Amino acid sequence: MKREERQQSIINLLVEHKTVDLDDLADRFIVSKMTIHRDLDDLEQAGVLRKVRGGATIDAGTQFESDFRFRERQGHDEKLAMARAALDLVEPGMTVMINDGSMAAVLGEMLLQKRPLTLITNNAAIIDRMKNESGITLIALGGVYSAKFNAFLGVVTEEALSRLRADIAFLSTPAVSGKLAYHMDDNVVRTKRAMIASAARSCLLVNHQRIGHTALHVMADLADFDAVITDQAPDAAIVEQFRCDGIVLTIASNQDMT
């Protein structure tokens, strides 16, 4: 088996199992452990996985967010629930901004129900989906393309955002702890902050399993958002703390406002 084929097989196993074991991979592909080490190094350098002791994982860590290709396959029902809740904040005729991420891509698809809209995004999946749709004025943000995030990032993206204004921006995050939202990548953080600054209102989308976790960079204070949407209620203590802090939390599974 060629190296490229073996590495693709490792990716396929990660999609199915989320983790892989070094010894198992060496036995499966009948190669040395050193060869598997090199494969995992290559994939880690490409931002596809995170090496751990004895293998690799696609689960996020404080300095790692898994590749878009993995995230788009995970938690689809939860993403649908959050997207439906977010859609309630959109009215035809609005200018809507959406960031990178698989969660945002699901919401982007649903926005077709609210056309006509002007849509501003750096999300390549949304750009590809919307480019031929009637009733959607698509403003595609340029910049440096990131395969890991399937999005355009960097100075060009941030400069474009500084010259645009939206009625509402929808942003996702891989980690929330206390009153702060976090992200692992500094380029992504800067783009998300630029979106918040360029929108009259902003809404944060976060899976409940990501609440109570941190990442490398502080992205924003939750008070910067007009609403926070999650798929299921987090721990009661967290819900109570949100209430005390004046954070508007929408539980997508029941549409209750807390």
TrEMBL record:
Gene3D superfamilies on file: Winged helix-like DNA-binding domain superfamily/Winged helix DNA-binding domain (1.10.10.10)
Keyword GTP-binding among UniProt keywords: no
Family annotation (Pfam families): DeoRC, HTH_DeoR
One example GO MF annotation: DNA binding
SMART domains registered for this protein in UniProt: DeoRC, HTH_DEOR
Stretches assigned to the HTH deoR-type domain: 3-58
Keywords: DNA-binding, Transcription, Transcription regulation
Classification via PROSITE patterns: HTH_DEOR_1, HTH_DEOR_2
Superkingdom to which the source organism belongs: Bacteria
InterPro entries for the chain: Carb_Metab_HTH_regulators, DeoR-like_C, DeoR_HTH, NagB/RpiA_transferase-like, Tscrpt_reg_HTH_DeoR_CS, WH-like_DNA-bd_sf, WH_DNA-bd_sf
Entry protein name: Transcriptional regulator, DeoR family
Species of the source: Rhizobium hainanense
